[in-house]
Design goal:
Blueprint: H1 11-23, H2 26-33, H3 37-51, E1 56-59, E2 62-65, H4 67-83, E3 89-95, H5 97-100, H6 104-114, E4 118-124, H7 127-135, E5 141-147, E6 156-161, E7 163-167, E8 179-183, H8 189-196, E9 205-210, H9 214-222, E10 228-231, E11 240-241, E12 252-258, H10 265-281
Parallel strand pairs: 3-4, 3-5, 8-9
Antiparallel strand pairs: 1-2, 5-12, 6-12, 7-10, 7-11
Helix pairs in contact: 1-2, 1-3, 1-4, 2-3, 6-10
């Protein structure tokens, strides 16, 4: 592997193999990095595929490095030494409820362990509130939902989801009277769209339930209390997607949006780590 300097190897993968040596195995390395064992193993497998050789002798009860693995360790040590910069400062971060209850919590936890001199203060609010806080300079950045046509050139797009009208199969929709609507409260842009464009097809919505929590809306739909707008991550097997009578909702996009003129090396690093992790897995899975 004499041509290591000419290869583009992921710094996260080099950090993983270095942690295996430093902490004495994949399990302890995963704990130190704030990752699952499978994620660490996946990083090592990617390295092995890229280099065309085995880096570990995987035997029961031990993890020994091959000759190529030892050579890579030397290289990893040099690269990590060069790339190691001490980040410090404060980040005011905004999140929505659904991103808080996802794998993002693990990403933030790992960031805190890797960069202990960075203080991250997180506030959980609805997307419209977070957008206003960004405009007022109260946040450095926020992960928010926006409709696809609202994405700005400066937004970092994380992933996309579809918004659906849903109900329980036992709920029969009235033909001549208003339809019971399960709504997030006034600060929800789903609600604004539903009560504006969502009634263009002649549907009259009557709000019968308001809740700031997605869990509350999910429970109300599952109980047959009315119809609601929910994105894909909150759909349940017992729900029925409504495909007629109602206008088709716009697509959703999850983005990282920064405050105006925010320049922060710690924030740059955090955003890059979030974007890298999410692009690798194609989204944010809800935490179980």
């Amino acid at each position: 592997m004499s041509d290591l300097n000419n290869r583009r190897l992921e710094i996260d993968a080099l950090r993983a193999i270095w942690a295996i040596r430093h902490h004495g195995g994949i399990t302890r390395a995963a704990e130190a990095l704030g990752l699952s064992q499978s994620a660490v193993s996946h990083k090592i497998k990617r390295l092995e595929t890229s280099l065309g050789c085995e880096l570990l002798n995987r035997k029961a009860g031990s993890t020994a490095f091959t000759t190529e693995g030892e050579e890579l360790l030397d290289y990893a040590g040099r690269m990590l030494s060069l790339s190691k910069t001490t980040l410090a400062g404060r980040i005011a971060l905004g999140l929505t409820e659904d991103t808080t209850c996802s794998a993002l919590a693990h990403i933030l936890g790992r960031f805190r362990r890797l960069h202990p001199d960075v203080s991250v203060r997180t506030q959980v609010r609805m997307s419209l509130v977070l957008r206003a806080m960004l405009e007022q300079g109260e946040l450095d950045a926020a992960i928010v939902q926006v409709f696809a046509h609202e994405v700005r050139p400066t937004d970092v797009i994380l992933f996309r989801e579809t918004l659906h009208w849903v109900k329980h199969p036992s709920l029969l929709l009235p033909q001549t009277t208003s339809v019971p609507f399960l709504s997030f409260h006034d600060d929800c842009f789903y609600r604004h769209w539903a009560l504006d464009i969502g009634q263009d097809g002649g549907i009259m919505l009557e709000t019968v339930f308001e809740c700031a929590s997605a869990a509350g809306i999910v429970a109300a739909v599952s109980s047959g209390m009315g119809v609601a707008l929910l994105n894909e991550r909150h759909l349940r097997p017992e729900m029925q997607i409504i495909t007629d009578r109602f206008p088709v909702p716009p697509d959703l996009v999850y983005v990282v949006r920064r405050g105006r003129k925010v320049r922060n090396a710690a924030l740059d690093t955090l955003v890059a780590e979030i974007e890298s992790e999410i692009s690798r897995y194609g989204g944010l899975a809800l935490a179980s």
